[in-house]
Amino acid sequence: MPGIYFDHSATTPVRPEVYEAMEPFLREHFGNPSSFHAFGRTARQALDEAREKVAQLINASPAEIVFTSGGTEAINTAITGVARSLASQGRHIITCAVEHHASLDTCRALAGEGFQVTVLPVDRHGRVDSGELREAITDGTILINIMHANNEVGTIMPVEEIGAMARERGIVFHCDAVQSAGKVPLDVNGLNVDLLSLSAHKFNGPKGAGALYVRKATPWQPLMHGGAQERARRAGTENVAGIVGLGRASELAGRDMAGEAARCRVLRDRLINGMLAGLEDVVLTGHPDKRLPMHASFCFAGVEGEAVLLGLDVKGIAASSGSACTSGAMDPSYVLMAMGLDTAVARGSMRFTLGMENTEAEIDYCLREIGPIVARLRSMSPLAGHC
Fold this sequence. Notes:
Aspartate Aminotransferase, domain 2, 40% helix, globular
């Protein structure tokens, strides 16, 4: 059973309906949306319609949606834009240890500009403690940056509670929802967020298109300069075809979300239960309940995750490893280290993320194939004696 894709947190296939919506804007409707002629007006109308669809997905106003090139730009824009806008009022930012590098590296860059960054720890499930966050707030805190769901272990953060705390103290709150938008319900008002980032290619839209929600009256500055596009909030000619795809993907995700989440949850639990019952020395990472419905992540003690990944690839199964190759050395995941996992165990991390095309037969095939792969690797691994 070759060609099984369990890596939907990395990217997702573009739905046929999304491709069909995009194609005319790659061919006959090629106008620049800033132009005043008919070609430009057609493109402008397409942007307006997409903006409404994205806004509807997260219960926002269309005027609060700023189109970007994806999640990374949206996150950078949110964090840097708020920090520089409010620098005269305070220079303290709060984030947490398991944020995506788009957040952590942006905060580190701001630290180089003189901002103070508090990086909160997480518990063994990868969740921030709201009480610790409250204690970290100072009179100079201008921004709280906490993700909605972790990309590596799928844990969902207590965002609504954090947002209420931020609102109570008058602190701007940005939420990276790149992994959860289009997969679980998001209501920017219920979550009490001031800014929220999302990316089309994480929910069956195209790569290169994303959005930043900015609540009306939120203080921030644009990251991109050089044009008046997006109401002077993001310079540069818009990726019309990509944004049309983002809009259509948002529309479809909103329509199908409940049923798809329920279906994926059944598959996810089948995978988790089968993995824990069928293999020894396997650790489920992330929160057991408060996790994305299509996300399962594990650590296989005594092996390298990359080796398991390659073994699965040979069998036609695409997944991902939580480890990162840096400076020629295999380093365990910083997310798992922050969660307190043993280094030797963390090296065996694997992530399986499901999508609309996956089936029970594919789950069962994976469960049949992964056991012998892990057993063979353990028989050869010097790590096996230390787990």
